Amino acid sequence: MVLLKVMEFKSSEVLILMMLTGGARYANEMVKLFSRQRVQTHRSTVHYALHRLVRQKLVAIRWLPSKNGGRRKELRFYHLTGRGHIELQRCLELFDSF
Questions:
Q1: What is the Cα–Cα distance from 29 to 97, expressed in whole angstroms?
Q2: Is residue 45 a contact partner of residue 53, using CB atoms and an 8 Å limit?
Q3: Is the pTM above the cut of 0.85?
């Protein structure tokens, strides 16, 4: 049971790293991508995973202008760091070894 929780915990981080290979993304955009791919996750799970990835320096934050003219002029976008690319590659190789 504990192993399953650890795998679930890590898998959301790996999926986020994979999403960011295409470029910087806004957190809510990632939540919608999870939903579109029929991956059940809660919005807070994505936000907590992003914060962990930032603390580990696998993901960095970049403030970019809002495109939709909402109440925020700038939005926080997340993008992979060099360490993030290396960690993603390591995780994918680990998954391939199963």
A1: 31
A2: no
A3: no
Alpha-helical runs (H) found in the chain: 2-19, 27-36, 43-55, 82-96
CA distances from 17 to 41, 51, 60, 67, 72 (A): 15, 12, 11, 23, 25
Is 72 in a helix, a strand, or coil? coil
Instruction: For residues 23 and 3, give the distance between their C-alpha atoms in angstroms, rounded to a whole number.
Output: 31
- C-alpha 57/C-alpha 87 separation (Å) is 10
Record the tokens describing residue 85, joined without a space.
């690319």
pLDDT band at 61 (very low <50, low <70, confident <90, very high): very high
- The phi and psi torsions of 81 (rounded to 5 degrees) equal -100, 175
> Contact, 37 vs 31, CB < 8 A?
no
Structure tokens at 71: 């109440």
- Which three-class secondary structure state does DSSP give residue 80? strand
